Amino acid sequence: MSSFLYQRPIHNPLSDPYPISPRSSASSHKPYSIFSPTTLLVLLSLMVVMGVFFPWVGMRESLFSVTTRPSIAKWRDYTLAQAASFVARNGTVIVCAVSQPYLPFLNNWLISIARQKHQDKVLVIAEDYATLYKVNEWWPGHAVLVPPAPDAQTAHKFGSQGFFNFTSRRPRHLLQILELGYNVMYNDVDMVWLADPFPYFEGNHDVYFTDDMTPVKPLNHSHDLPPPGKKGRTYICSCMIFLRPTSGAKLLMKKWIEELKDQPWSREKKANDQPAFNWALDKLANEVDLYLLPQAAFPTGGLYFKNKTWVQETKGMHVILHNNYILGFEKKIKRFHDYDLWLVNDHADESPLGRI
């Protein structure tokens, strides 16, 4: 399927209302006779053409290309409010947060969403300017950077301070979108959609989430917050969340932010955002309307990729798969390859970004 099917035929939100008109063709040359008055005049003309005209043409083409190339600097001033308004459909925004090394995963995730016809709702929160410019170059308006950008030189390896700095910004982004009045769905980009998840957000609960534990639940399991584990807290995944713009959802995001402040990263305690999310859930369980999504539809990677029997028993029920319980770009890509879930090689034309 051609990629242009996913390019929205609407205006660029920051487009220039006065685009530069197509350049005029090069000056035409007047015909001249070979019987010119003197040979010297002919030679002189050739020297002018070879020595002056051709270099000027090259310079002119260069100047023209710089002048007409769409400006990317304008995206620095693009705000989250503008971006959310631009992409929202039916009051809903689908959000991911991406740094440049994860662009292949972003594309893979987008292909799977495009197959479910929800790509227009996607907003990429770029965590560096290279990502901001790259995404908006190919898909104008669908990426925004909320300053300040994290240090691009800090590795985003799981457990690192860079990873903590990267993920700890998440609840602030989500809270801001909620404050704008939108439903918001957050995904990590190491996920793949196999079906439309929106029918599963039934009812009017504040927050919908998935369990990160691998033990098999009954198909009719409770949708209440599971009981705490060995560490005194639940093990809910912070990588797939759906929130309605309610006071309860906003309260949870604020509590998540507080818990992150109380549990900063250190060399001794290599924190990430998920424990803080779970502490917030546990402390607000009686104040916020919480909903645990079906395990069969939203399995953790530790279950889907490691329990073949369960996969067969729940065949046809899977909606969003998370490629977690494994570390490293190459290992994640290989696993996707092994399960025919790495789509970017053969299906890039289905992505709004094409072959980035």
TrEMBL record:
Listed EC numbers: 2.4.2.-
UniProt topology in membrane: Single-pass type II membrane protein
GO BP terms in the entry: rhamnogalacturonan II biosynthetic process
Transmembrane segments: 34-57
Protein's organism: Pyrus ussuriensis x Pyrus communis
Entry keyword set: Cell wall biogenesis/degradation, Glycosyltransferase, Golgi apparatus, Membrane, Signal-anchor, Transferase, Transmembrane, Transmembrane helix
Main localization, broad class: Golgi
GO cellular component annotations of the record: Golgi membrane
Keyword Transmembrane helix included in the entry's annotation: yes
The keyword Metal-binding belongs to this UniProt entry's keyword annotation: no
Protein name: Glycosyltransferase
Domain Nucleotide-diphospho-sugar transferase: start-end pairs: 118-336
Gene Ontology MF term list: UDP-xylosyltransferase activity
Family the UniProt entry places it in: Belongs to the glycosyltransferase 77 family.
Subcellular location(s) per record: Golgi apparatus membrane
